[in-house]
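Summary for the steering committee. The consortium agreed at its last meeting that each partner would contribute one worked example illustrating the joint modelling workflow. Our contribution is presented below. We chose a case with several input lines so that the handling of multiple components could be demonstrated. No manual editing was applied between input and output; the record is shown as generated.
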Amino acid sequence: MTDMTANPALNADKPAKVETPFQRFRAEFFESKIATGALIVFLIIVLLAVLAPWITPQNPYDLAQVSVMDGRLPPGSEAFDGYTMWLGSDGSGRDLYSAILYGLRISLTVGLASGVIALLIGMAIGLVAAYAGGRIEAIIMRIVDLQLSFPASLVALMMVAALGKGVDKIILALVIAQWAYYARTVRATALVERSKEYVEAAQCLGISRFRVVFRHILPNCMAPLIVVGTVQTASAISLEATLSFLGVGLPQTEPSIGVLIANGFEYMLSGRYWISVFPGLALLLTVVSINLVGDHLRDVLNPRLKK
Amino acid sequence: MTVFIIRRLLQALLVVFMMSVIVFFGVNIVGDPVYMLVSPDADQADIEAAISRLGLDRPILEQYWLFLKGAAQGDLGDSFIFGEPALKLILHHMPATMELAFSALILAVVIGIPLGLYAGLYPDSRISKGIMAASIFGFSLPTFWVGLMLIMLFAVELQWVPATGRGDLGSFLGIQSSLFTLDGLSHIFLPALNLALLKISLAIRLTRAGVREAMGLDYVKYARAKGLSTRRIILVHVMKNIMIPVVTVMGLEFGSLIGFSVVTETIFAWPGMGKLLIDAILQLDRPVVVAYLMIIVLFFVLINLIVDILYSILDPRVRLQDQGA
Amino acid sequence: MRKFTAATAVAFGILAYGVGAASAEKLTIGLASEPTSLDPHFHNLGPNNAMSVHIFDRLIAQDEKQRLSPGLAVSWEPVDELTWEFKLREGVKFHDGSDFNADDVVCTMARAPDVPNSPSGYGTYLKGKEVIKIDDYTVHFKTAAPYPLMGNDISTIPVISELGCDSTTEDFNAGTAAIGTGPFKFQSYTPGESIVLVRNDEYWGDTPVWSEVEFRPITSGPSRVASLLAGDVDMISGVPTTDITTLKGNDDIQLSQGVSNRVIYLHMDQFRENSPFVKANGGGDIKNPLMDVRVRKAISMAISRDAIVDRVMEGVALPAGQLLPEGFFGVSDNLDVVAYDPEGAKALMAEAGYADGFEMTIHGPNDRYINDAKIVEAIAQMLTRVGIKTAVETMPRSVYFGRASKGSPEGLPEFSFILVGWGAGSGEASSPLKSLIHTYDKDAGFGSSNRGRHSDSETDALIEEALRTVDDAKRQDLLARATERAIENVAIIPTHFQVNTWAAKKGLSYIARTDEYTLATGVVKE
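What follows is the complete predicted structure of the assembly.
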């Protein structure tokens, strides 16, 4: 999650058969039961988060529905408004089941939004480098290398220190912390592709560089980008939780999963394990399922590990 | 070589400069430290006096200019909160963080590489699958959550080691560190383990990937065909081949350990510079935040520089030049 | 760096044990918040003041209920309308062996307001006071107008030795200048890690039980509790309310609790016709309903203080009906906690013309007071239930206090309805009255924290008269009347007084203090 050099697929030269047809890829992916299971779990989590307003008894952000009299109830208790709190309630009287699903919405939004934006920006910059070549490429890659020499956690921490709290700000901070990973991935693929005969041939034929970049290099970047994207999204979600725990992430009134865990952290020694444990499990499940999918994707997309 | 080093350092200065602009101005926009610092009993005149004592009544550009002037002479400003030079504060807290990150790195290598080796050699065994599953959890679990669990288990329930703080210092070869006393070691064990978890997982995965790749390479096949013992093949040929990348990556991860120590230090009340940083951020102690940033940037640039130079020495094919990968 | 090496520390330790052979007992305390310096005049902040009490005496001491008692001064009384005479204790020695006398007092009072880089000094308490040495053991404090609070003000100033007057904050932190007359002597200070003090065996007062005290900052609440349970520390301050029930059930732990001088209250915008965070239902503009005393009363009635105390604070707080808990100087005997009455609140709202309620946002800090963000949420829930649709915004104190004080484009308080706390450092009612209730008046230094800008000339007159009245009985009466009038007008809405909790291992207990200080001298063996 922190360093992509762990992934041989991204740095190594690729053999010629890199464009695996989608179907073959799909077949290979579903070969692994664990990865398939993880993908299903992840899709269920996303579905639950999307459907949260319709499948939860309480909107934890609507103060008319939350009562402090319901605070810290153990799992299975009955709420003031009559429904059962299957996972108990937190210190402010939020039904944990509802709060977790709503929290997942925020955490997934932060993770996916920062992932997608960083991917687009990183990809654009990487392509510009590949397209321009020469001095511009050297400068861009120098910046990328410099940024990658700092841990993403520190960059994000510095950014929230300078930006302040809030969903938009944390997304921005995570984008700034992550774009370089994508840029490097695109550039690495571009390097490989550029040296191939067909690109040379295309150039000889007078096909524009622009066309070469978009028609040939970009499609080849997609596979490694997806792998990096899954890992980075998982890491963005847990980074957001960490920042929130440190008190510099998201505000407490509309808690993400990270904020829920951080709030529950206070209760760990008081025996009210559910306030922290259930959100913790939700986060774990989310991050593990994304990582398992990413892990397997990496194996599938890395031809060198094939027997 | 000299040109290369000078260019690198110039680039580092540029980065330091840009980051300092962002953070300097950013922290100013986020909030106003004065109202946290003044005593509630202070009246309006006292508050204004405090603002001017801290130099916050000047225009922000002028403040920045004064900061640059000071920085050029090695003065990064005085902490708003402690009233002492920010640089001194950070350097004072640095050894604790370094020994924590160093211990975590050692743990990661000592635990991670053997496990990764096993998982790479016997990829289909149950134990290997267990190791790999555990490694996924290792970097999916939030550090802060694991930290408290470790305290609950080892300090509160079992009472094997202390829960928080840094132990007595010992001295060895002129270096002072809590690693040289038993008390110090018992204190550092939990935070180092907590911090190492992520890196243990990373080491496992790197080693496993390396082993699996190396086992498929021709020279290993050849060595096998030649009848060399498996033990010898692994220890000499495979390990030699994978150790360099693994150790390099782990070395570079040292920086990330320092970054993540912010969390661990908060939970274990470890008196390092990560704790100092997070407190400074929460209290808008701008001089400390900016100084931390500048020091850490220089630190990372130096690490990278050293790694690059070492590489060029070890591997003559690598030329030192300012190009990307 | 500025720390003793392990070897010298041990050597000093042995030395200290040797001298104080009577009883060598070490106490380790886990602190919730760390002092920012050992310079007693650097930062007027609770943790700093608490730490400096160990090393430096004041002329007048404050006991655990903040009542004044003789410290380095044996007596203090007005000799005429404008002059207070302090008689100093004779035969007191500083830690370095030098004698304490009037010169030390004069130079202390000169240094205290004027420390370089100080983020918040002690000038507040010394403003307008001239210090004159009469003889070696007599000092006069002169003011331009009669000043009854002389004793309270002077009790906040730690007295340092004349030799330390030219020292810098760094000298104090290094220990070279940390020389006082107090019950403990400096031994070592490692910021972020520990402060170690040893007993002053020549102390003029009661010699402490503990031969050595180590303070360790452990700011994370659960980690602090875990450290106590693991036996790393003997006592901790700031026990989180969430852990109190469990700790109560633990036979190895002894809890000590006491109400503090800190009231948590709500300020309401009473100076803007259009308040930025008050809207009509649906979000349109509305004439600020908070200007109407009936609405303010209704809000007060809509808040169940018992629910806040029971549910949010887990029973560890006292419902508040005025600015200070009973027992403090200047509180009124005629004020009860406003009863929870949501129906009455709705009726009052209807009478004021807001039968359908309105919308507003409550702002509060989330890292300043015990459970602050949760209290803000609970209050918003309660108000929403009587028809005032209340949104919540909490933020870190670093952002909050600046915006709450002068965040609007005109440099005025930005918010409409806020939660704040006030600890009366002087230990009597003039402190909150002067700063929170009195009309905002920059030139006179009144109303500096009056973020709702409540203004009532009659209350102002009572407060000002009290601040001129040297006679204690008369002043008590004036302060009580001012408080009653302020509560009558709902200038602010007090919700509860914080109760602080300390936890110690079995066999120890702490004498809880209203000023929230954690003092080694207050830790007693049972």
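Chain A is about 70% helix and 0% strand. Chain A has one domain: 30-58+72-305.
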